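Q: Structure tokens for this one, please.
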Amino acid sequence: MPASFLFQAQVKKSPKDLPSLYRKWLEEEVVYIITPKEKDVFLQLETDRERDIFIEAFWKHRDPNPDTPENEFKTEHFRRINYANLWFGREGPGKGWRTEMGRIYIILGEPNQVEKYENLTEVYPVVIWFYNGMDEYGLPNSFNVVFFKRTAIGEYELYSPVKFGPQSLLIHYDGDPSDYLSAYNKLQNIEPSIAEISMTLIPEESSHSISPSLASEILVSSKIPAAPRQKVKDTYAEKLLRYKDIVEVDYTANYIDSDFSTVVIMDKSGIPFVHYLIEPKRLTFEQVGNKFKTILEINGKVADLKENTIYQFEKTVPIEFDQEQFGKIRAKLFSFQDLFPLVEGRYRLNILMKNIISKEFTSLEKEITVPSPASLEIGPVLLANKIVANSEYRGKTKPFLVKDLQLVPSPRNDFTNQDKLYLYFQIQGLTKELAESGILEYAIMRENEKVSSLTKNLKDCSDKINFFEEFSLAGLPSAYYKIKVSLFDKNHNELLFKQADFFISHLPYLARPWVLSFPMPPSDNPVYANILGNQLSNLKEIKKARILLEDAYQKDPRSAKFALDYCRALLAEKEYQRVKEIASSFLDDQQKYEFLAILGQSCQALGELETAISYYKDYLLHFGTNIHILNSIGKCYYQLGDSQEALVAFEKSLEISPNQEEIKNIVKAIKGKK
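A: Here is the predicted structure, written as tokens:
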């Protein structure tokens, strides 16, 4: 799969524009359980195939037991719809699912208890459904849902103490409409059970309030309608929309939530690296004999804020364990960690992780900034639950490795009060004066109140770029905190600050993931200069790009990739003779074909037209038809005065792409001379 990552805005449709099958699904079958985000995404889908995939994902993300063939949630949902259509709606024009009773039944299911008061002479027909044990859906531990017939005929309406009040339950009530207590007392004399629910639907609340329960109104109008969505993580819907044109059909319904983290760290060589980690909620393996295997495919894209692609990469990561190894990691989370160099600027980062074995995918989307090393800046604050001295990879580049210290961060920044919190950040652009007189303050804060703090003088820090601190969390209660790093001048004026949130769990122990990461070449390896040079080329900063691409080529002049990328920069700078010198030396290589087009362009620019044609034709023999090469051949022949051969090339180009005004005009001119 090419990592093209082209995201286009989708046109949102109206439900009435959908084919009838999908309109029925949206407006009838799932109308009470679909989240606003899911509905919004569904209305942006363009084809029936996309809608089918979405519907598959919709049910899959509600399946309480994905390992069984049956989706118990889906089965129960359609049972409720069928029940509603069978038993409700008999006294009105619509189907049962449209009635208030049908709606509540579909949302909440079978009530624990039902009471009916349909034959009282002084009270309109009333039905009370009692529910309990539904607090996991954001509902009270126990509550009533009440229906009544306001005119004694027709369908039952949903009763709200605030909207209707106890007086609306009485057939003959001529008292003050705002005198709730009087109506309540009258109901109490007729039927105490109805009186109780007339003021509040929640048994725990006092029934002797002089006004109807506001909590009951919130229950009826907000909490019950939201209950089916309470446990649904609808992130998958926007991911499906974002990646539907990128991931294969097999993957589309199988989005997995993940946590992720990114940080930009300036290497000692001065190269900024983006360190990132992704922790999917699960990682599926396939058992083959005594081996457990999976294959991950990582596709990355960095774009500027105008969506121009600056850098792309793709990696295939096979993973294999024997039975013993798999037993040690199977119950743990998985953390994939990686890094790549990136030039100064503001970008949007997208990482797509696909599991080839299970056809599942997850993603990372983040805006990142690579600051100028010349400006005074505190870098992002990275929190780790562990730091390990790691001399094994000394001199190499590795995710979250700084100097010889391997940081072990969590994307959730979660700790126990038995942990130590390790803090790391960088400061760039320190002046000599600040390095001598500056002050760093570290403050742990809870609800904007300082819990503890630590102050250090910069002159006492041996490393004026990389800063590490260790904090004990012992004695701090479970809560959400911030840690703030401030830089002060000698007069204690705060110049800069950065902060990070973290959480101390009430649990004594937090399960930590197993980590997969790979050491990379040292930062002086020419591969990084080549990557950064190409990024600058994509940013149209050709002069800066050329310096880095030349550096990579000079360090490894036999690398075809380094040579070709350097030649492209030289071509942009119109140094055609230098391009010829470098590219010609690769003509005896197996990879010579990659240089044919660039040699043709250089020779054409130098006026060596017959040689250029020869290179272009060799290119076409190897790579097949290419309109740009055909046009270049045509222009060379045209300059040589061979109109017949020029016409052959141009007409072949127009067969492939007819809408080329420039070429059509040249052809017209050639034919006009005949």
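A few notes: The chain has three domains: 111-228, 256-516, 542-673. The chain has a mean pLDDT of 93.
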